[in-house]
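Lab meeting, item 3. Inverse folding demo.
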């Protein structure tokens, strides 16, 4: 029991000592803060008077305000400023940031150089100070109240949203991508960061355009995760949507992630097939290459083109890709139907007409190769007749190809000569011979 009582006494003693230490530390902090704020207020009053009298130079304003900012910042960090004095402290802090901001904006309008890094850090101080003043100043109404004054402070804080865009522009001109993006990011999140003025913020450019600029800044700085986060918003800037889409897609190749590139191309092309012919063609080539590398178990192309054609059956390159795949797999009947659909989409498509003919031609050649192995003469004769029939069926399609490219006989004359020869049309075969 005595041990317990002794322990409790020790704890009480320690608690008393800690309380005394805390009180002493608080008093010291309050004393320090009071001294710092008193010095800061002197600087504020002096420089404000000179500014009002128009006797302060730009260098003097910048120099004195930097000193004042350091003093107030230290006072705020000390924790010694009473709650009922915080509004006043932040007001002084805002003064020390507002004056330099005005100076640098005036210098900028004159096309004269100034410290971009300080402009940005000062801007962050300004918005933080204005927010602090608004949060810690009680609104009073009436003739002697501060309601209108605080409305002015709100307008000043709302206006700063556009200053972050200007800071981003300054950094972008000297290729400081991280700083540029940070400034854009603050602008994009401004209404969340400063909810006190969310309904007052009016950007000089559309918000989707801000996202567009931030997206491309992230790309230039190789901040790929930030690019992806901004893509859906940036693509809404219709004027440059195509550029945004292309940059997003090609960024995957920059990263060496071909699979992600293919997945993004697939997503984009299926969403809007007619606007993405080039990418459909690229993905078809990619899938064909992958299928050759991975062997017969791979089936990438046909499901993709079928999905495109389900969305829009008139996408020529998708239809042609499907036909090519069938032809390459020696599925000539399926290939013929797919190529035929290509001609329905584009009547003067030489390659599709030629390939239609070639499907019949190749099928005839394959069938002809079996004739010598057929022992039954009747069956052999039927097969030979079928072969001739297929060569004959190929002729109209090769002739349509000829109509599409009349001055290029090397593209169609050889096959036509063969077809005419087999079907007993010697004169036409001779005509093709001359062209060759």
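The presenter then showed the designed sequence:
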């Amino acid at each position: 029991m005595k041990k317990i009582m002794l322990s409790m006494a020790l704890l009480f003693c320690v608690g008393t000592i800690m309380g005394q230490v805390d009180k002493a530390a608080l008093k010291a902090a309050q004393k320090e803060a009071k001294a710092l704020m008193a010095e800061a207020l002197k600087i504020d009053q002096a420089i404000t008077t000179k500014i009002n009298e128009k006797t302060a130079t730009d260098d003097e304003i910048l120099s004195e305000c930097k000193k004042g900012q350091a003093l107030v910042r230290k006072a705020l960090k000390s924790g010694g400023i009473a709650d009922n004095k915080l509004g006043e402290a932040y007001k002084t802090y805002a003064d020390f940031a507002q004056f330099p901001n005005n100076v640098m904006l005036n210098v900028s309008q004159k096309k004269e150089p100034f410290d971009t890094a300080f402009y940005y850090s000062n801007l962050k101080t300004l918005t933080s100070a204005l927010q602090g003043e608004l949060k810690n100043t009680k609104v009073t109404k009436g003739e002697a109240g501060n309601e209108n004054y605080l409305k002015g402070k709100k307008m000043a804080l709302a206006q700063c949203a556009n200053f972050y865009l200007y800071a981003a522009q300054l950094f972008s001109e000297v290729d400081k991508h991280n700083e540029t993006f940070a400034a854009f990011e603050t602008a994009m999140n401004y209404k969340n960061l400063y909810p006190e003025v969310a309904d007052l913020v009016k950007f000089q450019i559309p918000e989707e355009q801000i996202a567009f600029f931030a997206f491309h800044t992230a790309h230039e700085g190789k901040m790929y995760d930030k690019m992806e986060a901004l893509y859906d918003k940036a693509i809404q800037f219709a004027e440059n949507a195509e550029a945004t889409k292309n940059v997003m897609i090609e960024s995957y190749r920059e990263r060496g992630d071909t699979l992600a590139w293919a997945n993004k191309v697939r997503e984009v092309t299926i969403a809007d097939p007619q606007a993405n012919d080039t990418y459909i063609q690229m993905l078809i080539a990619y899938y064909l290459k992958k299928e050759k590398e991975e062997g017969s178990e791979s089936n990438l192309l046909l499901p993709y083109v079928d999905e495109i054609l389900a969305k829009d059956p008139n996408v020529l390159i998708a239809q042609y890709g499907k036909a090519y795949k069938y032809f390459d797999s020696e599925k000539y009947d399926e290939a013929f139907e797919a190529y035929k659909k290509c001609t329905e989409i584009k009547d003067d498509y030489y390659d599709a007409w030629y390939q239609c003919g070639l499907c019949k031609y190749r099928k005839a050649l394959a069938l002809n190769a079996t004739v010598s192995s057929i022992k039954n003469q009747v069956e052999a004769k039927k097969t030979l007749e079928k072969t001739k029939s297929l060569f004959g069926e190929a002729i109209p399609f090769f002739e349509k190809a000829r109509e599409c490219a009349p001055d290029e006989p090397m593209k169609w004359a050889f096959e036509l000569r063969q077809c005419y020869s087999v079907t007993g049309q010697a004169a036409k075969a001779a005509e093709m011979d001359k062209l060759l």
